[in-house]
Amino acid sequence: MAAYDTDTSPARFLTFEGGEGVGKSTQVKRLAARLGDLGVSVVRSREPGGTPKAEAVRSFILQGKPESWGVGAEAVLFAAARLDHVNELIAPALASGKWVLCDRFADSTRVYQGLTGGVEEGLIDALEALALNGHVPDLTIILDMDPENAFERVRRRAMEDGMPALADRFEKEDLDFHRRLRAGFLAIAAKNPDRCVVLSADMDEDALAEEIWRVVRERFPELETEDQPA
Ligand code: TMP
User: Fold this and answer.
1) Could you tell me if residue 200 is inside a domain?
2) Parent domain of 99
3) How far apart are the CA of 226 and the centre of ligand 1, in A?
4) What residue spans of the chain are helical by DSSP H?
5) HEC states along 194-207?
6) 185 lines ligand 1 (CB under 6 A)
7) What is the pLDDT of residues 97-142, one digit of tens each?
8) Residue whose CA is closest, atom 9 of ligand 1?
9) Is residue 195 a part of any domain in this protein?
10) What is the domain count for the chain?
């Protein structure tokens, strides 16, 4: 049934972006599984992280250690992690014909450290050029949700999983911060209409997975095979 021809079809680089609690990780997994069913070789990754060095930066950053260094240094750290991730994982995977699906990428730096954190655009541009080294995503799916609904979702999930601490991520920052994140991602989408697609994440997981699949098939017609009609 795997009719997708990995020899003749180009490798693709897809990123998922959005605020907290919008369901990116779940959707990355679901899309990877669906592509895999078609015979596409897929590498799933995330940022910050994806390689041992970048994961080390992740744990340093997410433990809040660079807070005293300031947001500019934090942007540099995210970029350093990204540079390793691109060089060691993303670029080699694409070169060997694999699709790469990444949970967050450079747009997160632009929104969290740049538009929301106040790091000036020139520095964000320079860090992005350095870290990406030309590896601009073919498609960025921005999952958009009202932060109040996202907060409810995070809290519900945390309670179900017996991990109330997860809800802390929201409580640490006020709702206004999350609204600014949302506006930041929407601004990036408006500026990059060829690369970005905004989807409402305010629907159930199955419906959103279908929506994403529709967008991906539309964007990459090479996925249409006789075995897997639209
Ligand atoms: P996540 O794995 O749940 O998405 O968490 C990663 C956190 O790091 C999230 O709060 C967003 C933040 N982040 C940035 O601030 N800048 C970045 O460049 C990236 C990739 C993530």
Assistant:
1) yes
2) 13-221
3) 39
4) 24-37, 52-62, 71-85, 91-95, 106-108, 121-132, 147-160, 168-172, 175-191, 205-219
5) CCEEEEECCCCHHH
6) no
7) 999 999 999 999 999 999 999 999 999 999 999 999 999 999 999 9
8) 20
9) yes
10) 1
Q: Is the pTM of this model over 0.90?
A: yes
Ligand 1 mean position, distance from CA 36 (Å): 26
At 72, which CATH number?
Answer: 3.40.50.300
Whether residue 144 is predicted with pLDDT greater than 80 in this model: the reply is yes
The Cα 135–Cα 47 span in angstroms is 15
Give the tens place of pLDDT for each residue, 18-59. 998 899 999 999 999 999 999 999 999 999 999 999 999 999
Name the closest-CA residue to atom 6, ligand 1: 48
> Which is more confidently placed, 70 or 228?
70
Check pocket membership of 13 for ligand 1, CB cut-off 6 A.
Answer: no
Regarding the beta carbon of 27 and ligand 1, being less than 6 Å apart is answered no
> Which ligand 1 atom is the nearest neighbour of the CA of 47?
20
CA of 108 to the centre of ligand 1 (A): 6
Residue 45 is encoded by which pair of tokens?
Answer: 């990754």
